[in-house]
Design brief:
308 residues; mainly beta; YmcC-like fold; 17-stranded antiparallel β-sheet; 17 strands
């Protein structure tokens, strides 16, 4: 049995042993946990209200800064990823803007993602995040658009906003990650139902941006695409550094550079590979070398992960 099959089987068992319970306030953060698998009857996924998933979020429980070590969204920071998706080379530029958006009374940080292939625009997305006082990073939705070869909007599928049409926010990064924990990142029935499972906190990963130790590894899946599983790697002080498809179409995205906001007197420009320039820890050795995942590639899984 391949490594992925073992991991998927374990994930199914973890999901089978979990139940979700609505939280009375964000400090009781159990509702974003991934629930037990869907019934074997093949019935469609229940709505947020029917499933009992309805996290009670209150503006008073959230802070202005997103400084979770594994997902530090510092305004003015730009991340550049390069890889392959749907058989084509792709470049993603992720920018943490200084703009905000108020959703359900909570002020969210706006993060943009521009995906391109050469000079062609593939997708443009605006994501909305907020951090609660305990350090959990919540995801409140996205406005996304994919483009055709002529540069016209082809689809806005996947767009959603918490509070609209039954959509609910979820946790994308817990304050204190623990192996075997699973969380619901979002819930908009039939459109956005991503979940993730933490499988390691001790990976060693090397990408063009640098070599990292004590990296968190997660498996991300959605019941909307049961044969697709993504593996993501997060480094403390940086965020996502690598994403690899564990099942489904071959996809890979590696962190190439990080540009920090200006720090210091006018005219000072922090280096592209200097996290300490904005007070972030440097959790890895010298930058350089070809991209590689040091703990091996995963193979296609034949079993879906647990459904909500």
């Amino acid at each position: 049995m391949g490594a992925t099959l073992i991991v998927v089987a374990a994930a199914w068992l973890v999901g089978a042993s979990c139940t979700s319970s609505p939280a009375s306030k964000p400090s009781s953060r159990q509702s974003p946990r991934a629930a037990s698998p869907a019934p074997a009857t093949g019935e469609p996924s229940p709505s947020a209200s029917a499933s009992g998933y309805h996290p009670a979020v209150q503006a008073a429980d959230f802070v202005q800064t997103i400084d979770n070590p594994y997902l530090p969204w510092i305004p003015g920071t730009t991340y550049v990823f390069r890889g392959i998706k749907e058989g084509e080379a792709q470049r993603d530029e992720v920018v943490v803007t200084d703009r905000t958006k108020v959703i359900l009374g909570i002020t969210c940080v706006v993060v943009t993602d521009l995906a391109t292939h050469g000079n062609r625009l593939l997708e443009k997305t605006e994501d909305w995040y907020a951090q609660d006082e305990e350090g959990n990073v919540w995801y409140f939705g996205e406005d996304t658009a994919s483009y055709d070869e002529k540069g016209h909007v082809e689809s806005r599928e996947g767009s959603w906003e918490a509070g609209g049409d039954g959509a609910q926010p979820g946790i994308v990064m817990p304050a204190h990650p623990q192996v075997t924990e699973s969380y619901r990142q979002e819930f908009y029935q039939g459109q956005a139902e991503d979940m993730f499972w933490i499988v390691s906190l001790s990976r060693t990963v090397k990408v063009p941006y640098g070599k990292f130790q004590n990296v968190m590894e997660t498996l991300e899946w959605t019941p909307l695409e049961p044969n697709v599983i993504d593996t993501k790697f997060y480094a403390a002080g940086v965020g996502v550094i690598l994403e690899v498809a564990a099942a489904g179409d071959k996809e890979r995205a590696e962190l190439v550079s990080v540009t920090k906001p200006q720090a210091g007197p006018p005219g000072f420009e922090p280096g592209l590979t200097d996290p300490e320039s904005v007070g972030l820890p440097l959790p890895h050795g010298p930058v350089g070398g070809p991209a590689e995942m040091l703990h091996g590639q995963r193979t296609r899984a034949s079993h879906p992960l647990p459904l909500p």
